[in-house]
Design brief:
By secondary structure, the protein is mainly alpha-helical. Helix content is about 45%, strand content about 5%. The chain contains seven helices and four strands. The strands form two sheets. It has a two-stranded antiparallel ribbon with strand order 1-2.
């Protein structure tokens, strides 16, 4: 019995060592995957955005099935229907691939749509004829980085794991609280310290004030 326990512990240590080596190699290359807070935050934002798109319809649909087709089918508003939820959930995680990694930021706002300042600068150099070597082909520069594709996988796993929680919010609670509060704060992230990224917001760009003609500059 002790012999089997020793072998099990030895294998577990070997596996742990392999994981540590893998993480170290990734960190050395600057790879920092999304944590559960970041993944849930973006899932909630994208699903609410998708529901906002599908919720504009005022159609009334018929649901139910009758063998003899004599009994009237139940009529319901599309925006309150299960069909709308299913259509909104479909491919919602594909929207994660629209995000880029903004390495000039260190908090959860590093995942955002639009080109990062770093790549804007690099593209500008290329446009000016400067040779820039990143070790990857130029045509792959704007492809989703590994951190984003991995976050898409997290999104898909969360949808499957918390399907009931999302459904409860949609049918019963969406008028009372946001999906981020219901899904992320109350289900996915149990500990307070896990929720820090939910407070992080991208700071608005400072607006340049137009100089009014006739204003004098202070010396």
């Amino acid at each position: 019995m002790l012999r089997y326990l020793f072998i099990f512990l030895l294998l577990a240590l070997v596996h742990l060592r392999e994981l540590q080596c893998q993480q170290t190699a990734e960190e050395e290359q600057g790879v920092r995957y999304a944590n559960r807070c970041e993944a849930c935050k973006i899932l909630a934002a994208e699903l609410e955005a998708r529901l906002g798109e599908t919720g504009k319809s005022h159609d009334v649909i018929e649901i139910g099935y009758s063998v003899d087709d004599v009994r009237p089918k139940k009529r319901t508003e599309y925006r309150r229907s299960e069909l709308r939820l299913l259509e909104s959930l479909e491919n919602v995680c594909e929207r994660v691939l629209e995000y880029n990694l903004h390495k000039e930021r260190t908090d959860s706002t590093r995942f955002a749509k639009g080109m990062s300042q770093t790549f804007q600068t690099l593209h500008g150099l290329v446009d000016k004829g400067v040779k820039v070597d990143l070790g990857i082909p130029y045509e792959l520069w704007d492809k989703p980085p590994v951190e984003v594709t991995q976050m898409k996988n997290q999104c898909e796993n969360m949808l499957e794991e918390y399907e009931d929680a999302i459904s409860d919010w949609y049918f019963k609670l969406q008028q009372e609280k946001s999906l981020q509060q219901h899904l992320c704060e109350e289900h996915v992230l149990k500990q307070q310290q896990e929720r820090e990224c939910l407070k992080e917001q991208l700071s608005p760009k400072p607006t340049k004030q137009k100089k009014i003609k006739g204003d004098k500059e202070e010396l």
